[in-house]
Amino acid sequence: MYRISEQQIDFILNDISARGVEMESLQQNLLDHICCIIEHDLEENGDFESFYQKTVKTFYKDALWEIEEETLQLLTFKNYYTMKKTMIVSGTFSAAAMSLGIFFKFMHWPGASALIILGIAVSSLIFIPLLFTLRVKEKQNIKDKLILGIGTFAGILISLAILFKVMHWPGANLMGTVFVALMVLVYIPVYFFSGIKNPESKINTIVSTIIMIMGCGLFLTLVNSRPYIQDNANEVTNQDLQESYAAMSEQTRQLSLTSCMAPPPKDDKLNEACNAACDRIEALKISLINSSEDIQVKTVNYKELGKLDNYNDPTIVLFGSLDDHPVPGADLKVLRERLQTINLLMKEKLNTPVSLIDLSDKKNLKSGVTQSWEIHHFYCTPLANVLRNLTQLQINIRFIQLMNKRSPDMLQTIKFVPPVDSAMS
Amino acid sequence: MIYSSELIKGTLKTIVLKLLADNKKMYGYEITQRVKELTFDRIQITEGALYPTLHALESDGLVTTETEYIGKRVRKYYSLSPSGKNKTKEKVSELADFMETMKFLLDIKPKTA
Known about the structure:
The structure holds 2 protein chains of 2 kinds.
Chain A: H1 6-18, H2 24-41, H3 48-57, H4 65-77, H5 80-107, H6 112-138, H7 142-167, H8 172-195, H9 202-258, H10 265-293, H11 313-319, H12 330-350, E1 362-363, E2 370-371, H13 373-378, H14 383-406
Antiparallel strand pairs in A: 1-2
Helix pairs in contact in A: 1-2, 5-6, 6-7, 7-8, 8-9, 9-14, 10-12, 10-14
Chain B: H1 5-9, H2 12-23, E1 25-26, H3 28-38, H4 47-59, E2 63-70, E3 73-80, H5 82-112
Antiparallel strand pairs in B: 1-3, 2-3
Helix pairs in contact in B: 2-5
């Protein structure tokens, strides 16, 4: 029986840690084990060094740290089943919540947004990361792990981009663009060239690559092009309307200046009411733009505006909150009063019961519910359409003012362009 | 003959648990030697399989450890925890059942083929 010296014990311990075993308890186990073998099997005057090297080689296939790796694998494997279960449950839950949310959205039932947010949040923050953690263990080389990592990141990005898009939160387009760039520039090339080398997965790789490119293309169209065209169209329409309103305002101003005869007192009242209403609306437009677009403008200029991709702010400014039972705010109340004054004056003048500016309740085309004039035209309506409706109103007022001077009788036969229905936007 | 490591891998936990149930407390080297002895060298547990398994059993709470200093080195003794004792019975009867099934399966297969 061989007697191991303290120096030899230190030597073995250093060698074990030099071979990559870092866990202290494992080091101690292996040290004791090797010492036992040496003490039992080596003769009293045998060669310690060569016997040790021979013994330690029997512990592993390629390297001693395999034992530590195997230990860690077993220790983490313990959570494997809980993780798998959580993954399946969260996946099922998010799929169900999303489908239900979309169905609710179609039916205009309450709770749709909450379900969609919940579904996408669970899938992108729990399901996809878990899927990644479980899958990455199965992959052997670093390249495969990297591909999986990028894919996971892209997956989370696209879910969040869609969530932000649906909720009209800022940053959706940026996330969508980063997703497409990541897919097209990094993921698809790496995936394609690593998969095509393997004859078994060649066909599969080609098909998946084509599908992914198609998907990215469709996504890009959906995220970027459509709103751009829409916003652009709104901007052009708004700009046109604004210009014609400016032209009409100038015309009325000129007309009242050049008319040599003093206008009858009633007309004076009408002019005042019209000018007041138009100025009021112009001020409202500027305050809407400033609070929605986070800029400070003094005159309405559509070329300075952003994408007008702004849905909730006008409602908050005009109604105070995004409540399900909105009550028109002070601005809208004053506006209605001004418009009613004009209507009243014109009724007297033309001697008719018909209101020139229609302020009656309307039926929502989508839900069929009867709504007040304010809710119908301004509630939950994008900024672009709110501005458009306001400008249209101004134009109608100016038109009344102009026609009143020229041929008031014609006003009774004219049909005004109505503002856009909020349900249509 | 020496059994293949694949066969041993699936039963190693059960072997270790059963040995600890019979011997109160043991350390790693002792376990490998005892298995060798009991099976007349036919089953040789490798260090690369034994220590990961012992660590896993410890983190599952099936075994407890106590350390003893032998000169400059530390020896870790393993013994069953109460839940380990229950688990041992479960594991042993599961393996016995499995062996019956395998006997049945492997005997019956050539006849039906």
